Amino acid sequence: MTEERLEQRPARPPAESPPPLEANDRLVTAVFTAGWAVALVVLLIVRTSLPSGSRWWIWTCAAGLGMGLFGLWYVPRLKRGRARTAERRAASRASAVGEAQADAATEAEADG
Asked: Can you say whether the dihedral through the CA atoms of 94, 96, 102, 105 is positive or negative?
């Protein structure tokens, strides 16, 4: 009985996916950089009690902090570059559509 009901249902088109969410990349980068900075400070405070085989964590935190600072510098430039590229593409598409419409109007005048 339930199989008959399932077969009788009309197939629904799949729902459209929502657009992707934009994250605040600079905030995310700043939070992770701050986390590496806190870890570095903590490890520098307790470095004398760390076993010699675990002191590499200090350098790991220093590298994470350095990459985070680079990310804070780089992310805004990346976003600006992507925005400029999107603007250029939109402008070139708009001009291509305008040219195609002008060509169509010219052909229509020539035929008429």
From this structure: negative
Could you tell me which of 16, 61, 22, 56 has the C-alpha nearest to residue 38?
61
pLDDT in tens, 26-73: 999 999 999 999 999 999 999 999 998 999 999 999 999 999 999 999
Tell me the DSSP string of 2-44.
HHHHHHHSPPPPPPPPPPPPPP-HHHHHHHHHHHHHHHHHHHH
How many residues belong to the chain? 112
- What is the per-residue pLDDT for 14? 82
Integer CA distances (angstroms), 33 to 58, 65, 74, 96, in order: 14, 5, 13, 44
Distance CA 44, CA 86 (A): 45
CB-based contact 33:65 (threshold 8 Å): yes
